[in-house]
Specification:
- The protein has three helices and nine strands.
- It has about 190 residues and is of the alpha+beta class.
- It has a domain of about 130 residues: Immunoglobulin-like (Sandwich).
Length: about 190
């Protein structure tokens, strides 16, 4: 039992390296006209496909929660798309995508899913509207090619075989106990 517990503990601690925080990786941080803007993006490194972009707006150390934030993305060069949205709901009808506070678990972050279609150097634009003034921030990005589907979905594909292996292991370990329980206690033979 101790070995099984140790093996599970080692497995879980090795998986901790792939856990991520709420906002993603910091890709830009700048103070403009008294507002400090921090831009996060996930996945890291950025790949063509849906990218979760979050913006933290602060005045001093306190988050600002009553602004409008829009996000835009454009490739620096014209090239064919490396990734196309799988459904029409990801197609942006406008140039700017509104970032909302309800999209993320962290209610201080304004976030949106931004479809980045090509794997080329590109520009991410952040527009913050606060009390009638407009603050613009642009970030240069290096977007990589999307992962092949097998590499992108390997955790989902690996789970069923691992669950079956765990079931088989459980059945093999519990079988000797079941046999002993079915045979009953041994009685000494009287001679």
């Amino acid at each position: 039992m101790r070995r099984l517990f140790s093996a599970v503990l080692v497995l879980l601690s090795s998986m901790a390296a792939c856990c991520y925080g709420d906002g993603g990786t910091v890709i830009a941080r700048q103070t403009i006209e008294g507002l400090q803007l921090t831009v996060f993006a996930s996945p890291a490194p950025l790949r063509a496909g849906p990218v979760d972009v979050s913006v933290l707006v602060q005045k001093g150390e306190k988050p600002v929660l009553d602004v409008d934030v829009d996000i835009s993305w454009r490739a620096n060069s014209d090239s064919s798309a490396d990734w196309l949205p799988p459904c029409c709901t990801m197609e942006s009808r406008t140039e700017r995508i509104p970032a909302l506070r309800g999209h993320s678990n962290n209610r201080f972050l304004y976030s949106a899913i931004v479809p980045m279609k090509t794997a080329v150097p590109s520009v991410l634009g952040i527009r913050v509207l606060e009390a009638g003034r407009q603050i613009l921030l642009s970030c240069d990005l290096d977007v990589r090619r999307p992962l092949p589907p097998l590499l992108a979905f390997w955790p989902w594909l690996a789970f069923p075989p691992l669950a079956m292996a765990g079931f088989v292991l459980h059945q093999r370990l519990s079988r000797p106990r079941q046999r002993r329980a079915m045979q009953g206690p041994e009685t000494p033979s009287s001679e």
